[in-house]
Amino acid sequence: MELYTSVSYELSERLTKRYSTSFSLSSRLFDGSIRRHIYAIYGLVRIADEIVDTYRGGDSLERLNNLEAEVARAMEAQYSANPIVHAYAQTARQFAIDSSLLTAFFESMRMDIDKKTFTKKQYDEYIYGSAEVIGLMCLSVFVQGEKERYESLETGARALGSAYQKVNFLRDMKSDYEERGRVYFPHVDFHSFDDTHKRAIEEDIEADFVVARQAIDNLPRVAIKAVRASYYYYYALFEDMKRADAETIKTRRLRISSPRKIALLAKAVVRS
What is the pLDDT of residues 138-148, one digit of tens each? Predict the structure, then answer.
């Protein structure tokens, strides 16, 4: 099964890289000993995202539930005929990733199927399950079994995942509403979204980044360059959003150019 496992990790890497050029760049900075395990986590996340965001069949919930059940079976048997699930199961077992994190993730994905607006409580639950737990899964890989180090970095990892997701929500506000009728920010109507709403959201995101920054410098060597590169990317995007007005956010998707991404990557390498 060694060959199959190796190919499964390769497919997770390929899937992840095809979907995100920014993550593809920063992920190269992970130490070789953990890189494939990060791809395994993001590969599983990606196929769940596909079910709830782009699949147009009427059985999205059934497919998502089937995926969750397949992961559970793979964790038990340490094998799946789905290579992406197989790679994740290998990684989750090796690094003792808490199964409750995956449960919370799938709960958030189910919210994406039928929810169009969110209360503050639902929003917080969604952020935890869709983003913070991904940071905690990765942290399990980073610390490689060091429980005390995991606990010391847990708050920062959650804050970083939260900040990234909220930046994504702000960046994708137009497409989320136009393509899915969805607004994640609680008590915000797309058509009446204005600079006052935007500033309140930005203050919340900034608070997450402040907490996250305190943890990044204490990450293990195997992860610090890659995480710092992703932080530089997201914070640069966030700064661009802060300079834009609410109407711009509602009408176009802000991006970081490829040359600028390379510059931010280099900055992370030098800084680390």
Answer: 999 999 989 99
